[in-house]
Write a structure and sequence with these properties.
about 425 residues; mainly alpha; about 0% strand; globular; disordered C terminus
Length: about 425
């Protein structure tokens, strides 16, 4: 495997990208619009669909699980399309798909119609990340690529926060009006994002980046170092899902925080990631990506140990201060891990098969988010100590796999870029 990928370890000629800085700004603006849409939809998915369709929460939950699992089957096809047509064209398509799905939700007057729309939205959601990361790979190289990924992460968190506030305002309307407004707003947001991406000139591919059907997914599935990165990401991803799925229940039930204050933790995380994401990525770029990402996972585990101790150590007014301190530690783990881990997934993918590679890597996130509600719900019922112990073991195992994968990764994939944050002409 290393013999196949050794040529990429040599410095590659940087080719000019059509559109330059303006293309990247449009991409970032599109990402911000998309994250605002996710901020409106993701936290209130069940309420949103229940308000629009009148279906029971049980049937909605079952339908969303079915749609999410079914959408995973489309990921291999998304990878093929990205490699054949480029991340830009596929991203335009999946954003348009999401816009169409949300515009159709108010007209879902039957359960089959709801399932069809939910599947369309889920396919668009799962395919957005690999197509966008592939487009970033087309638009930038080296330090500039890491810089663009860092800005994308930071603004995505800011957009999620803004979207959540917008959702709260829409839900203040009486009846189903607020849900209809939310649906049409979501359709408009994703349509605007698609238009912004469409205004990015199609990147010109070098011969090494042009479609090559040789190997295909067989090449991906025999790339042991990349599969190790994907496995590590799957395990560490449970640390990310905890904040939205398990932490609110733990804080209100076991730490006895008021329901209203549980949301403060999410707000703190969003603000810190949005403001410190780029500086943290700049610092992380100075070391080996595997080691820095493993360090972030270790900080995750330390924060989980602290959360486990909270119910025994703090009570009353001191609880909120202690929770915020541990939440800041948790966010530190996210900041340290996210930048190098994402860079690894893009840098380790060969240019001509980037779509397939990133689609496989996206499965680590998608499968985790699909099974996490069941696992975390079981652990919450078992007890807080069991929850945090299992989560710590998962992320530490992921960290160990990253360190093990280091020896088999090509140097250019793993080494940081000291010039991160400096934009060179022509990149």
């Amino acid at each position: 495997m290393e013999d196949i990928r050794v040529p990429e370890a040599a410095p590659r000629a940087v080719h000019p990208v059509a559109g330059g800085v303006s293309a990247r700004r449009r991409l970032i603006a599109s990402s911000l619009a998309t994250s605002i849409g996710d901020g409106i939809y993701v936290p209130l998915t069940m309420l949103f669909i229940h308000g629009l369709t009148g279906l029971s929460l049980t049937s909605i939950g079952t339908g969303l699980t079915f749609a999410g699992l079914s959408a995973l089957a489309f990921m291999p096809a998304a990878g093929v399309l990205i490699d054949r047509f480029g991340g830009r064209r596929v991203l335009i398509g999946v954003l348009a798909l999401r816009a169409t799905g949300f515009a159709a939700y108010p007209f879902a007057d039957s359960y089959p119609a709801f399932l069809a729309i939910a599947l369309v939205v889920a396919v668009g959601m799962w395919a957005s990340s690999p197509s966008q990361q592939s487009l970033i790979g087309d638009l930038a190289r080296g330090a500039e690529r890491d810089r663009l990924l860092a800005w994308d992460r930071s603004l995505r968190n800011a957009g999620m926060g803004c979207g959540s506030l917008a959702a709260a305002g829409m839900l203040a309307w009486n009846g189903t009006t607020g849900f209809v407004v939310a649906a049409e707003t979501l359709a408009a947001v994703f349509a605007v994002a698609a238009v912004l991406v469409a205004r990015i000139p199609q990147p010109v591919r070098t011969p090494a980046e042009r479609p090559d059907r040789r190997g295909g997914y067989r090449r991906v599935l025999t790339d042991r170092p990349y599969l190790l990165l994907t496995t590590a990401n799957f395990l560490i991803a449970f640390g990310y899902t905890t904040q939205a799925m398990a932490l609110p229940v733990f804080l209100t039930r076991d730490v006895a925080l008021p329901d209203a204050l549980a949301g403060v933790v999410f707000a703190l995380n969003t603000v810190l990631v949005a403001t410190l994401g780029v500086p943290a990525a700049r610092l992380a770029s100075r070391g080996r990506r595997t080691r820095t990402a493993a360090l972030g996972a270790a900080v995750f585990a330390l924060s989980f140990a602290a959360f486990a101790a909270l119910p025994r150590l703090v009570h009353g007014a001191d609880a909120l201060v202690a929770v915020l301190a541990v939440a800041a530690l948790y966010t530190g783990g996210e900041l340290v891990h996210s930048a190098p881990a994402q860079s690894l997934s893009v840098q380790a993918a060969p240019d001509h098969l980037r779509g397939r590679y990133l689609s496989v890597h996206q499965l680590s996130w998608s499968v985790c988010r699909t099974v996490a509600p069941m696992l975390l719900g079981f652990l919450l019922d078992t007890g807080p100590w069991h929850l945090w112990t299992v989560l710590a073991l998962l992320v530490l195992t992921g960290a160990a796999i990253l360190l093990y994968a280091e020896r088999s990764l090509p140097p250019h994939t793993n080494l940081g870029v000291p010039s991160f944050g400096v934009t060179r002409s022509g990149t």
